[in-house]
Structures are given as C-alpha cells and as structure tokens.
Amino acid sequence: MEKVDQIIEKWNSDPDFVIEMMQDIQDEFRYIPREALEEVTLQTKVPLAKLYHIATFYKSFSLEPQGKYKIQVCTGTACHVKGAPLILDAFKRELNIEIDETTEDDNFTLEEVRCLGCCSLAPVVMINNDIYGNFTSDKIKTILKKYDEVAL
Amino acid sequence: MKKITIGLASCGLAAGAGRIKNIIFKEIKANVSEVDLMETGCIGMCYNEPLVEVFTDKGRWLYGNVTEEKAKIIIEHHSKDDSPIIEWLVKADEIETEDDTFFQKQIKIASRNCGIIDPTNIDDYIAAGGYKSLEKVLKMTPEDVIEEVKKSAIRGRGGGGFPTGIKWESAIKAAKDKNVNPILVCNADEGDPGAFMDRNLLESDPHSIIEGMIIGAFAISSNEGYIYIRKEYPLAVERIINALEQTRAKGFLGKNILNSGFDFDIIIHRGAGAFVCGESTALMASMQGKVGEPKVKYIHNVESGFKGKPTVLNNVETWANIPVIIEKGADWFAKIGSGDVSENPWNGSSGTKVFSLVGKINRTGLIEVPMGITLREIVYDIGGGIPKGRKFKAIQTGGPSGGCLPESLLDSPVDFDTLTKAGSMMGSGGMIVMDDKTCMVDIAKYFISFLKEESCGKCTPCREGLIALDRILKRITNGKGRNGDMELIEDICATMKISSLCELGKSAPNPILSTIKYFRDEYEAHIKDKKCPAGVCKELISYSVNDNCTGCTICAKKCPVNAISGKVKEKHIIDPELCIKCNVCYEVCKFDAITVK
C-alpha cells in the first residue's frame, strides 16, 4: 500500500482529485483493489460509496484484476462502418473470452472502446500502448503470438 | 538534404511511422553527416501515412505510404544528388501531384502548424510566429481583446456554436457582479466516436491551444485555467503536459506573464472515460472529483460554473483559432465562411472548421475547410470519392447527437444552421462517409446502443427511452420487427426530445430520426421483408459462393469454422449450418465470388 500512499500524496489528498488518484492506482495495479479505495477514503474523507460510484461510472476503471495486455478493439463510428464488430468477434473466438473478460493465463483482457481517435486508419486495435491501423482479423494469430512470447 | 521530418501523431504511429523513424535514423547515420531528423504531427493526409518530408535546397518533398524499403531508397537518393523520387511524392513545392486536390479547397487556421512544426519543442512554435499574439494582447486592454473576438464572430467549435465573444463578455459581467475572478476551461474530452480533430491539435500543435487560453484568460481576467482531456489519448496528454512545462519556463504562463503583472496558470484534469463528460455541467462535476452527471441548465456556466464561479468553457479548436484572430485581425477572419456576420454572429458561420473525414472514403484524414463549403466538395473534391467504385449512401455528421444525410443533400453548405435544419448538426467535426454496404438501421442501432451505455442514468426519459429504443432496434435487425415499431420509435423519440435533462438525451433521437426520414425503405425492408439490403445484419443475411469462384481454395483455408469445402479449381460451397457469418471469406476472396444477401 506504500504505492497508494505515494499516489494520494502526489495529489495532496485533495478530494477534487480523487479521479486522478484512482487513475494512477488503476495504472499501477491494472485494477483498483478494494484496500486502495479504502485508503483513498481514509485520507481524502470521500465516502467509500462515492468512490465506488466513480469506479463504476467511468469506463477506465476496473474493480477486477486485468490481464498483462489490454486489447482494445475500437468500435468508434468509422471502425464500426469498416467492420469492427467482426474483428471483435474474431478476438472473442481466438481468445475464447467475452468482452471485459481476461484469459486464464492472465495475459489478455479484451475490451471494446468507443473511439481511439485513429479513425482515418479504421479499423483500429490497441494493445497496451501499441496501435494497429487498417486491422484485419487474419492478423490476430500472429499478433497475439508476439505478445504471448514476450509474456513468457 | 537539410532536414527530414516524420509524422508521429497517433495516426502515423498506427501506420508504422515509429519503425520508419528508426530506419531513417540508422540510414542517416550510415550515409549522411549533417541532417536534422525531426518529429512532427499530422498534416491531415492520414490516408498516406506514414509521411516523411525531406527539406533540401531545391524545396520540400513530402513522401507518402513510406515503407521500410522506400525509406531506405529515399535517403539514399537524396544523399546522392538530392533529386526527388517523383512517383512517390504526395506533395511538393514545384511539382504537381495527384494529391494536390486534397489541399486545394482547404484553409488552415486552427491546424496551421500541424504536421509542420515539432510539437515537442516550443522554439519551433515560436519560430512559426507563436506567442506573438500573446505579446500583442498584453499591450491591449481586455475590453479591446473581447471586442476583437466578438467582431470575428467565431462560434464555439465544440458543436454548440455559441458566439465565443458573447460568452466571454457574459462571464466578465457575472464575475463583476459576484466580485470573483472567472475560471477558464478547455474542453479536450473529445468523445464523439469518429472524430479526432482535437486529438490531432493536441498532439501536433499544443501551444496554439495554450496561447489561445492565455489570451482568453487575459481578456476575461482569469487566473485559473483547466484542460479537461480524455485519458484515451495518452500521446495528447503527454504532449500537452510537456508543452505546459515549456510555456512556464519561457515565462508565458505562471506569475507575472512577460512582466505584465498578469498571472495565469493551467491545471490538467484527465477524464476517466465517460462520453457525457463532454457536456459542460457534467465536465465540471467530473473536474471536482465527482461522477459526471449533468445539471439542469437554468443557470449558465458563465454565471455559475466550476465551483460556483463564472466559467468560460471552450473547446480545443476554438482556443487554437484565437491566436490567429488576434494576429490577422477579426475582419480577416470574419470574411472567411458563410453569411454576413458584420452585425450579428448568429447570422452566419465565420472562419473554418476542422473535420475528420473518415469511413468509406478514399482519402481519410483531417481537413480544415471554410464554412459554407458543400458536402459534395468535401466528399468528392477533397475526399476523392468512395473506394472500390461503390455508391455513396450517406454522410454522418455531429457524432451520436447528429444524423445521417443522404445524397440529395450533398449540395448543402456546411455551416452551423444548415446542418441543424437538415436534421443533423455540425457537432465537433466528425464526418463519416457510408456506402451502399452500410446498413442505416444498423447505424441507428449502433448510436443508440452507444448512448444507452453512456447515458448517466440521472433522468428517466434518456435512461429508459434509450433502453427501449435499443431493444426495438435490436429486434428489427434480428428480423423480429413488428408492425407499429416505427410509430413506437417515433413516439419515444418525441418524448425524449422534449423531456430529457441535458443535450445528450435531447439529441439522442437524431441518429434514428434522420435515418427514418431519409432511409425509411431500409427500415421497412427489415421489418416487412426480413431483409437487410446492405448485407450487414447477421440474422438476415446468408453467405454463398457464386460462379466467379475459380477454386483457389483461399476461403476454405481462412474460414475459422471450416464451413467451406471444395476441390482445387472447382467451385466451392459454404455450409449454412456451420457458417458463423464472420465475413472472412468475403474479405479474402480476390474474385468477388462470395455473395452476401
């Protein structure tokens, strides 16, 4: 929890910045552990129920542990028009998980995201910070293999 | 060869520009001694990414679709005798290229520096004339600055289209009445799917936004500014944080700006992923660490906004226009655009607008065009028409609050008021082109499902209305539409328009109402004939192999469920029982031998 204390301190325990604190916690642990939220409550005096409300309201927070690699399939309008739903289906088939689920080996979490702002290269997929433009479902196997190898 | 620049905004990176940069770096080291390698943002020609520009004594040469191989050859060629490789050029000073028509009708104001300067280096912005307007403003009175902005008649680029000068003036008045300093906010929570104008401005020219904000702060006497930026844009967040640090170091931001006695600083808030936070009152709630739920708007933000103080909220593109208005003058700006705004800003739309031109169009990218240009000019002259010779069906503007406009409206001028009258809206600038393979009922379902998830749930008409609409549209696209569904949809939409709390709910019916208005026959085909004419809705289509099949076997190899069988050089067959309609066969077939209907 030392990391959590540092994060809260970085934002001066200011209740106006609880969303920022929670984003840093999310980045650090790849999800928001309950103990971390309790610590935020203790130090900012923002009730735990309010923090839970925030954590479930905003898309970027997760209360469950996430995989090592976050696969974000963009389903913004341009990507949708260019076949993103089919790519999402192909990822589901390949990883054998549904949206917002994590593979058993904890390597991949599959997410649907509404617009990464790379519409000109639609359809787009982002894996952690790597962006792939003009995506086609036949690339999936090769790309996943690359990350699987690094994960080993 | 003097300098090489590489476009490294998100779109460039997605196209592999990072790899190209490494290759060029290596090649330069091996072949040439003195040449600057510089990062830049996006010039808007995303369809030609990765883009590499070479600066020589003879001029500037912009190369598109640069692969690793091409990069090596370009460097080799230029290091030898500096002659360009003409067939790979997409833009050059002296030579005409096919792509020149992409720029011909554009006027760059907000995006003037994008893809030209190094966004990570403030000196580059200054060399391009940056912060000159701020210096000019600090010698003016705040009243004169507001007068200039009012005279330019610029209206808010976030979609609302409220005249910026009037907004600023109202905040000053409210601040005087309350005896407080107003707050200034930049809305960089670009949430509309299909729109990325602000992302590019933030990544490619962050200082023009910051300079605009400082000028605005001086005009309304604000000492406290915020940028609310969405977390989904990590590179934009990084660039704006970096730019703010450099601005402070140069004395343009912070205490006693350029020894004028004026103090102003900017704090960043990262949005955590909620479309509704683009709504002004929800955005301000989010900035105070709360969930982004809108408030009833009988009190305006300019009177009581962030923490109850008078607040001026403008979007990224509006701020980026401000330094140019100051530099070139309001009269110059007001002459660009449509309508006569000399008496009243509401009489027209002055200046330019940046649009993200995407979807089924040959030249996808970011364009900045004078207001009043027609949709046809955008789609055909700039965008180069529809790929694969397919037929244009609709253009979607205004994001989830906007609508789909058909071919019959292509000659409409693009300005705030015309688009609204047609049942869509200008919005923040997303323009998604659709062809005959796009199902308009599916598009309506897409937006409604998006809005259903993004509705904050506070007011009943929006929350429940969207759930009901989503259910009906799913039913229709699944082939279970009923007689009376259309009337039911129209009824729910009418209720939502009247009684929703904020603009999200009030405008949510637009995607359905505009598609019903212009493409009613497609709804009827789904409901009555149980058919999807565009071949999109899975429950209503089937895949088969037609006589074009040469028996190349590629579809059978790529089919993920082994639903395709057939011998080499013989026509193949798809087993409808096994087929999951994943479209892979259609994508891989080179002979147009897959029929979807």
Explain what this protein looks like in three dimensions.
The complex is a heterodimer of chains A (152) and B (597). With 152 residues, chain A is α+β, with helices and mostly antiparallel strands. Chain A has seven helices and four strands. A four-stranded mixed beta sheet of chain A has the order 2-1-3-4, covered by helices on one side. In chain A, a hairpin with a 2-residue loop joins strand 3 and strand 4 (130-132). In chain A, helix 1 runs antiparallel to helix 2 (18-29) and helix 2 packs antiparallel against helix 3. Chain A is elongated and about 50 Å long. The two termini of chain A are 27 Å apart. In chain A, 43% of the residues are buried. Chain B is an alpha/beta fold. Helices cover 40% and strands 16% of the residues of chain B. Chain B is built from 23 helices and 20 strands. In chain B, the strands form six sheets. In chain B, strands 2-1-3-4-5 form a five-stranded mixed beta sheet, with helices on one face. Chain B is globular and about 80 Å long. The model of chain B has no long low-confidence stretch (mean pLDDT 94). The chains are: A alpha+beta (152), B alpha/beta (597). Chains A and B meet through helix 2, helix 4, helix 5 and helix 6 of A and helix 1, strand 8, strand 12, strand 16 and helix 17 of B.
Identify the notable features of this structure and list them briefly.
heterodimer, A: 152 residues, alpha+beta, four-stranded mixed beta sheet, 4 strands, 47% helix, 12% strand, elongated, B: 597 residues, alpha/beta, five-stranded mixed beta sheet, 20 strands, 16% strand, globular
Total strands of chain B: the figure is 20
Form type of chain A: elongated
The largest pleated sheet of chain A is described as: 4 strands, mixed
Strand neighbour order, sheet with most strands of chain B: 2-1-3-4-5
Cross-sheet strand order for the largest sheet of chain A: 2-1-3-4
Percent helix range of chain A: 40-55%
Structural class label of chain B: alpha/beta
Number of helices of chain B: 23
Mean pLDDT of chain B: 94
Approximately what portion of the residues of chain B adopt beta-strand conformation?
15-25%
Give the overall average pLDDT of chain A.
93
From the spread of the alpha carbons, the general shape of chain B counts as: globular
- The low-confidence runs of chain B, each spanning 5 or more residues with pLDDT under 50, are none
The DSSP helix count of chain A reads 7
The termini of chain B sit apart by 55 Å
Per DSSP, what share of the residues of chain A sits in E-state strands of 2 or more residues? 5-15%
Q: Percentage of helical residues of chain B? A: 40-55%
Task: Count every beta strand of chain A, where a strand is a DSSP E run of 2 or more residues.
Answer: 4
**Low-pLDDT regions of chain A:** none
Rg from Cα of chain B: 26 Å
**Largest interface chains and counts:** A-B, 48 and 63 residues
